[in-house]
Please model this.
Amino acid sequence: MESNAKHSAITVAMARRQKTGSYALILRSRHWGRLQIGKLGLLTLRPGYYIYVGSAFGPGGIPARTAHHQRVQACPHWHIDYLRRQTELLAVWYSFDTVKREHRWADVLAGEESCRLAMPRFGASDCHCPGHLFYSVHAPQITDFERRLRRMDREHPLLYLAICNTADAGLPGKKRRRRRPASALSQAA
Model:
């Protein structure tokens, strides 16, 4: 058990240096519409919250990938780039790791009663998951997500939260980027 903990701590430390890991974008739509998602098809957009899970193992890791997602892209590259044109980015949940955990995150969201798959195959063209985009009428809570995640994977690294827009996000904090473990959020509440 002790050697697993040491290995896990070393793995997380390596991932922090490399800035690699998994993330979830918390997006909000205020309106109805139909949106063409590249060659994938049409997405029926509805008011509510969209949660997109992904991983960042390329150059720049999570900071580079989330910086990309914060900007609306003139020439969309990924499925999420099309959706970002019509939604507001509220927050990013992320963890540093050398293991891709986006599939586990998608499993957790798929098992949540308040979430449903928003569009089959969205963000999942390189894997066997049904999709990586989920929809909820209610704002997702990182503490609830982390609790469900830890039930499936006790060794999962800490989750962090970057708040992009607190004006309407229903999250604590000021209008600035914050980085703190998800477990610290539950203690602060």
